[in-house]
Design brief:
Blueprint (H helix, E strand, L loop, with lengths): L28 H26 L2 H40 L13 H100 L1 H5 L1 H39 L7 E4 H19 L6 E5 L6 E4 L1 H25 L6 E8 L3 E8 L6 H6 L17 H11 L3 E7 L3 E9 L2 H6 L7
Parallel strand pairs: 2-4
Antiparallel strand pairs: 1-3, 4-5, 5-7, 6-7
Helix pairs in contact: 1-2, 2-3, 3-5, 3-6, 6-7, 7-9
């Protein structure tokens, strides 16, 4: 039996059992038992003395035998009480939380059985305490790991923002050459009509300087005709200036960081404008590149609530990939007729935008990985592998989806579905779209 001094932690009982009575107290059954044992032994001693003085030898023998038996029983009860005292002390120490104290209980009697039960309880409490300590240690380790993971997540978000900015710059670089080519056309028209207007103004000045022409109907008609021509030139200059301004605005929208402001957007107009930007970028990138752009636009598609800067990037990325696939097939087949089809369809609860090219197509393996970040079929210096991944995130941020369909060597078709209901967008994770 070991009786170490309880620690401060182990001496704190979880239960208030009150004052534990002494086993020899008359308030306890064991104390009453001792009282009766002493009384019985005293009576047997008195009977033996009386039998020895006044009784027969037989009565004396019986009295002495009963006294011996009583002394043996009393000794046995004493042993039981003493062992019970140790068990009582053990229970008190267990209740107090002292798991180091224990009593050796050899044998196979009921007291030994109670001792084994208490030992099993002590071992269970020890395991419980170890599990609790391990749980606390694990909780602390999990807390530290969570802090580390949160810090890593913050770093990943910062890195993601940087990668997105780099992707935007890459997209801007690809489109810039096409924009320069595209904007040159309306500027040339503005220049031509401006020069024509100068000539018309000179002719008006000549007519105005001739008093004879001014006094005749022929002169008045000439002035009216020149005025009409001048007005038409100014109208054309305004039209092509607006066209150049729109191209520049589209390019600035591509460069601008999105604030995720949903607003009504004419989906047909957005699709055509971004397609033309990507198309002219491809013409600047691939010498001799050209393709037929087929438009099957649903006039009922109308406006949808979207972030035009983000959705425009999706269309530019898809059309740019289509142009690359068409160019690869054009290099392989001299009789190839490149074509790109734009199709919009308005359903009861969504708008579907389909972009289909007749380029090289995709294998099932490529389609399965096309939305995986950094996966790319382009050369290392021609793409980051983030275009379709970010496009997928943007569309999911609008509550929509992208469905690919392709046959190798024949076509690739990407269908973007944007829901019309506000609830669909709110159900999408707010951080899905960059």
């Amino acid at each position: 039996m070991t009786t170490p001094t309880p620690t401060a932690e182990s001496s704190q009982s979880e239960f208030d059992l009150g004052e534990w009575p002494n086993m020899l107290s008359l308030r306890t059954y064991s104390g009453k038992s001792v009282f009766f044992l002493v009384g019985r032994s005293g009576l047997l001693i008195a009977l033996s003395v009386y039998a020895g003085l006044y009784g027969s030898a037989t009565l004396l023998a019986l009295a002495l035998a009963a006294l011996v038996i009583d002394f043996a029983h009393t000794a046995l009860q004493t042993v039981i009480h003493v062992r019970g005292l140790f068990l009582q002390q053990w229970v008190k120490r267990l209740v107090a939380g002292d798991l180091e104290f224990h009593v050796d209980s050899p044998g196979s009697d009921e007291i030994s059985m109670y001792g084994r039960v208490l030992e099993a309880l002590r071992q269970a409490l020890i395991r419980s305490r170890k599990l609790e300590a391990a749980q606390k240690e694990l909780s602390e380790e999990l807390r530290k790991n969570n802090e580390t993971l949160q810090s890593t997540l913050d770093q990943l978000r910062t890195t993601q923002d940087q990668i997105i900015s780099q992707q935007k710059l890459a997209e801007l670089g690809e489109v810039s050459a096409g924009v320069a080519h595209e904007i040159r056309n309306p500027l040339q028209f503005v220049k031509n009509f401006a020069e024509s207007s100068v000539i018309i103004v000179e002719e008006l000045a000549e007519v105005a300087a001739s008093k004879e022409k001014l006094s005749r109907e022929e002169g008045q008609a000439e002035i009216a005709e020149l005025t009409v021509d001048l007005t038409e030139n100014m109208t054309r200059i305004t039209h092509h200036s607006d066209r150049a301004n729109r191209i520049v605005s589209d390019m600035l929208d591509l460069r601008r960081d999105s604030q995720r402001e949903f607003r009504p957007v004419d989906i047909n107009q957005l699709l055509v404008e971004q397609t033309m930007l990507a198309f002219h970028a491809a013409r600047a990138l691939y010498p001799g590149f050209n393709m037929e752009i087929q438009k099957e636009l649903d006039p009922n598609a109308g406006d949808i609530s979207a972030v035009p800067e983000d959705l425009g990037r999706v269309f530019i990325n898809m059309v740019s990939n289509a142009c690359q696939a068409i160019e690869e097939k054009r290099q392989q087949d001299d009789g190839f007729s490149p074509a790109l089809r734009l199709k919009t369809t308005r359903t009861e609860d969504a708008v579907e935008i389909s972009i289909r090219d007749n380029g090289t197509g995709m294998t099932p393996d490529v389609m399965a990985k096309m939305f995986t970040p950094f996966f790319s079929t382009k050369a290392a210096d021609q793409g980051t592998g983030l275009g379709m991944s970010l496009s997928h995130d943007i569309v999911r941020g609008h509550g929509g989806s992208i469905a690919p369909d392709s046959v190798v060597g024949e076509y690739t078709e990407l269908t973007v579905t944007i829901p019309l209901s506000q609830a669909s967008r709110q159900s999408a994770a707010p951080n899905d779209a960059p």
